[in-house]
Amino acid sequence: xxxxxxxxxxxxxxxxxxxxxxxxxxxxxxxxxxxxxxxxxxxxxxxxxxxxxxxxxxxxxxxxxxxxxxxxxxxxxxxxxxxxxxxxxxxxxxxxxxxxxxxxxxxxxxxxxxxxxxxxxxxxxxxxxxxxxxxxxxxxxxxxxxxxxxxxxxxxxxxxxxxxxxxxxxxxxxxxxxxxxxxxxxxxxxxxxxxxxxxxxxxxxxxxxxxxxxxxxxxxxxxxxxxxxxxxxxxxxxxxxxxxxxxxxxxxxxxxxxxxxxxxxxxxxxxxxxxxxxx
Length: 279
What we know:
The structure is a single chain. Helices cover 36% and strands 15% of the residues. The chain is α/β, with parallel strands linked by helices. β2 and β3 form a beta hairpin. α5 packs parallel to α6. The N and C termini lie far apart (51 Å).
């Protein structure tokens, strides 16, 4: 029997933020906020408590996908469980039953004791139940077996959330992964990398993606070029992952569609202020 999942906004700071932000996501905002591994400043990364908080606040999140020894898809970033649980060992060497016995919350704060490594099935079920259909969920496929794309897409289709997912991770620079995702479903949203502005056209021309993943601050003209090529634009990396207010302003002004950051709440607040000032 698993310990009950604590209410997602149990910590005082996070509760205060929730009260101030619930239902305040900018309506029709062009840039969607995606929290790197969830609200990792406020809750243990890659846990249901963390993701539930994101969904309650109408903020997207990024999750990591790996496979257990017995074939189950689970949500954890590292190759080992050592950093984010009370256990030790490689994820791929442990069965789902062994993984689910581990405490994935206490390392962050004792108020999250009893959080478990979730299955991808559980995460997708939570997304569906939340009805937060505007949220963008970035999926980082960590596993490298030839079935992980098919199995992840199959679960997403079962729960009706495939349209909210954007596949990143190995996807962005591995053409065979992009092809597997598109074979699994032509409706899969797939990103291809443009490391610099010089790479932008190659990513736009990629036949197996509908998003461009940039690691540079694009100009409005560059974002418009991607949009004309029927590609949406997602930005990640050091230009936006920290408290980068200036870069956040530049990329949202340039029309970037999704922004991945470690500081999702300050970014969401900045976008909200921008929308209010434009009225």
